[in-house]
Amino acid sequence: MDKIVIQGGRKLEGEVEISGSKNAALPIMAASLLSAQSLVLSNVPDLKDIQTLSHLLEGMGVKIKNSFGTWKLQAKEIKDPHAPYDLVRTMRASILVLGPLLARTGRARVSLPGGCAIGARPIDRHLRGFEQMGAHIELQGGYVEAKAKKLKGAQILFEDVTVTGTENMMMAATLAIGTTILGNAAREPEVVDLANVLKQMGAKITGAGTDTITIEGVPLLHDAEYQIMADRIEAGTFLMGVCMTGGELTARGLSAEYLGALIAKLEEVGAHVEIQKEGIFIKAPSVIKNANVVTQPYPGFATDFQAQYMALMTLSSGVSLVTENIFENRYMHIAELARMGADIKLEGKTAIIQGVPHLIGAPVMATDLRAGASLVLAGLAAHGISEIHRVYHIDRGYEHIEKKFRKLGARIKRTKVKY
Ligand code: EPZ
């Protein structure tokens, strides 16, 4: 088990190369199941979740070669359409194999993902969508047993936005008989990235990025090559980190178009932001102004920024309100930030944050991916030494986080925990 040790209080300055997006790469890798031909992907991030999914796909018979971030996946034949509990429980996004397996083989046995620190995370909208496409779904012994001779196009209206639900349905519909219309679809950029790959593979999709996506089924999909989009959540995490430590940063390798809500909020907080052709420049505010946030589906303020933003507000010059609308329990970072001197009260879904002059370094524990990231940011800004335990949560979604921050001047290192 590793821990990250930070000697806080140093300004961050310089440039950071943003890695490929975890939440685009995962559904896109699952899409390799839809065709017997090869899918070649570049800019795949080196993350724990990516390794987990590749083990899962190899277990089903997908041949995978990975050289320096370029991956070749080929599902010539799918021997075993089964996603076992011991892999799925470590990564809920494994549910993304369900749609492709049903579409390609007509059957799937996928472990129910179970909950995680941030909420129960049910998959009822996924299952209802597959049933509308003619699949027979049974839940047995913690597994989804799904069967469908041939999926049929359907009109599916999601009662509430679901990102992987939209992605699962879109993949399944590419090989269905007839046309599928997804209403109240997720508009996240990662959904658009997946649609782009599917179209490269020969799928007929219109409307990705809007709340209505139409997919006309085709008999077969073929090979494709694609570069995964940059990770907007990693980029936003670094932008907020600089706002907390002071200094200035250029985040390279992504377009700012997907960060509109966050950039507007950071300007409200007092940061100076310049949009560049291939990146974003930010100069930290001299005083961090308090500004309220409510998390929403895209293009609103992303829930995956909430924990990091809360850490920023702990250092604001006033009182701010942060309301989490997407996940019922995405507040585990509050208790850990309080250990560092933050003044946060949770009332229902809203955290009331009274800014303090500075945080004080302390040993803290990552409880989930973005909570862990918020503790790294807090440690970088705090006076004194912080230790962040259970770093494996952070490694699921951030590529070499301590190396990237060290390059910006942070005193941060990863060490082994003795016991
Ligand atoms: C995706 O999760 C992301 N993960 C999450 O990122 C992200 O926080 C989330 O979308 C929201 O943007 C990946 O893309 C791999 P949802 P997902 O289905 O698809 C409820 C990270 O930090 N719901 O949009 O699982 C659900 O409980 C991760 O990178 C149902 O009730 O999220 C939640 O309250 C964390 N029934 C809300 O909807 C369903 O069938 C939104 O969930 C599906 C979802």
Provide an overview of this structure:
The chain has a 4-stranded mixed β-sheet, covered by helices on one side. A 4-stranded mixed β-sheet has the order 2-15-17-16. 31% of the residues lie in helices and 26% in strands. The protein has 2 domains: 2-19 and 230-416, UDP-n-acetylglucosamine1-carboxyvinyl-transferase, Chain; 22-227, Alpha-beta prism (UDP-n-acetylglucosamine1-carboxyvinyl-transferase, Chain), CATH 3.65.10. With 419 residues, it is of the alpha/beta class. The model has no long low-confidence stretch (mean pLDDT 96). The protein has helices at residues 22-30, 48-60, 85-88, 98-105, 124-132, 163-173, 189-200, 232-245, 260-268, 306-313, 332-339, 369-381, 392-395, 401-407, and strands at residues 2-7, 12-17, 38-42, 63-67, 70-74, 82-83, 107-111, 136-140, 143-147, 155-157, 179-183, 204-206, 212-216, 224-227, 247-252, 272-276, 279-283, 293-294, 319-323, 343-347, 350-354, 363-365, 385-389, 411-416. Strand 16 (272-276) and strand 17 (279-283) form a beta hairpin. The protein starts with a strand and ends with a strand. Ligand EPZ is lined by residues 23, 26, 93, 119, 121-126, 160-165, 303-304, 326-327, 369-370, 397.
